[in-house]
Design a protein that fits this description.
- By secondary structure, the protein is an alpha/beta fold.
- The protein has helices at residues 2-14, 39-51, 88-93, 95-100, 116-126, 175-179, 187-199, 228-236, 256-264, 281-286, 293-306, 325-338, 365-386; strands at 18-20, 29-34, 57-58, 61-64, 67-71, 78-79, 82-87, 106-108, 134-135, 157-161, 163-164, 183-184, 204-208, 216-219, 225-227, 243-247, 271-273, 311-318, 342-347.
- Helix content is 36%, strand content 20%.
Length: 387
């Protein structure tokens, strides 16, 4: 999601007289598009801000992570860089960002990124911190036009958002608090964006959502609601598109019907990312995942049977509060049984606002690291055997 948000920001700025530059040492506007899902990701942002604290630069330019922009009417001048923080950390920490990093000039929440060009232009015009503040969210829905700027970092591949936010409230996850409740884009706007991308030479698409399986849009011509499976079939029928995929699926909303659609859609990649998080029923309940170990194993078995030669990947969290050695063994054994093609494995870290914050983080760090190592080594062997 952050990759696409960064593209959206770049596209908006390109439409208002900014252009990309490859020279970060000369960028005078720095925007950090942030993530709050893991503590490590946040720590990297604080460190990155520090790099620009005393950074003297030339010209009027914009930099977004590894992407940089500058004004087309560039005139050399020496200034302190304008620093902005956007994304999940902006929504999560708000004024705390200014207290911890006084060098930051503006903070913009997840649903207000369309305001960024206006903010930067005013800062450049006044050459001062005209409003050093949080730009508060005025609504839950982003303006639809921000997804139609036409900018994609990869000329052959495009990420297309089908839904924003999440309403699952998994106990460890900060997403509902920083990105808001689930909001589905109109299927007609999604198809239009894909067609626009195809017209620019894009041949591969990835549909994005925190939980794509729960997607629903308004009635189509037949008067029926468009759910995720119908959307997949519509995308599959688009002329000029060679291949497409999607992330991420939630097990509780995943069905055999989805697997059948994956098998039938000719252009759809036979790849499913299905985060299990834990193999222990006790931990899954504490995580508020909404399914059991058996339910997940049945899903995996059905996927293998229906989507021939389809790849299956997952996410796993080790060291969740109260996780015993027996709970960990359940996860380890599930990994062996399913035989994932790949897995993203994380050590639990508490996140602000989440329900899990009320639990005692009682698994010692050393034990988390050992469990993390064991799962990593097992998955490396499994992945190697599938190559």
């Amino acid at each position: 999601m952050n990759v696409r948000d960064s593209e959206v920001i770049a596209g908006l700025l390109q439409a208002t007289s900014y252009e990309l530059t490859t020279d970060s040492a000369k960028a005078d506007v720095v925007i950090l598009n942030t993530c709050s899902v893991r503590q490590h990701a946040e720590e990297k942002v604080w460190s990155e801000i520090g790099k620009y604290k005393k950074f003297m630069v030339h010209g009027s330019k914009f930099m977004d992570k590894n992407k940089k922009l500058r004004t087309k009417n560039y005139e050399p001048r020496t200034i302190k860089p304008i620093i902005g923080v956007v994304g999940c950390m902006a929504q999560n920490y708000k004024d705390e960002i200014f207290k911890r990093s006084p060098e930051v000039d503006f903070v913009v929440g997840t649903t207000d990124i369309e305001k960024i060009p206006q903010i930067i232009n005013k800062l450049v015009e006044t050459k001062s911190m005209f409003e050093r503040k949080i730009w508060e969210t005025e609504g839950d829905v982003r303006p639809e036009e921000i997804y139609h700027t036409g900018y994609y970092e990869d000329k052959n591949h495009a990420h297309v958002v089908i839904s924003e936010g999440c309403s699952n409230f998994c106990s460890y996850c900060v997403v509902p608090y920083v990105r808001g409740p689930l909001r589905n884009r109109d299927y007609k706007e999604i198809l239009q964006e894909i067609e626009e991308a195809i017209s620019k030479g894009v041949s591969e698409i990835t549909l994005l959502g925190q939980n794509v399986n729960s997607y629903k849009s308004g009635a189509c011509g037949s008067g029926q609601e468009v759910d995720f499976i119908k959307l997949l079939k519509m995308v599959d029928a688009l002329e000029g598109l060679k291949e497409f995929g999607f992330v991420t699926s939630h097990p509780k909303d995943t069905s055999v019907d989805l697997f059948k659609a994956m098998a039938d859609c000719k252009k759809l990649k036979k790849a499913l990312h299905l985060p299990v998080q834990s193999g222990s029923d006790k931990i899954l309940k504490l995580m508020n995942r909404g399914y059991t170990r058996k339910y997940y194993l049945d899903l995996a078995d059905n996927y293998r049977k229906i989507v021939k030669a389809g790849s299956l990947s997952t996410d796993i969290i080790v060291g969740f509060p109260t996780e015993t050695k027996e709970d960990f063994k359940d996860t380890y054994d599930l990994l062996k049984r399913v035989g994932f093609n790949s897995a993203f494995i994380f050590k639990y870290s508490s996140r602000p606002h989440t329900k899990a914050l009320e639990l005692v983080d009682d698994v010692p760090q050393k034990e988390k690291e050992e469990r993390h190592h064991q799962i990593l080594e097992l998955q490396r062997k499994i992945s190697k055997g599938k190559k």
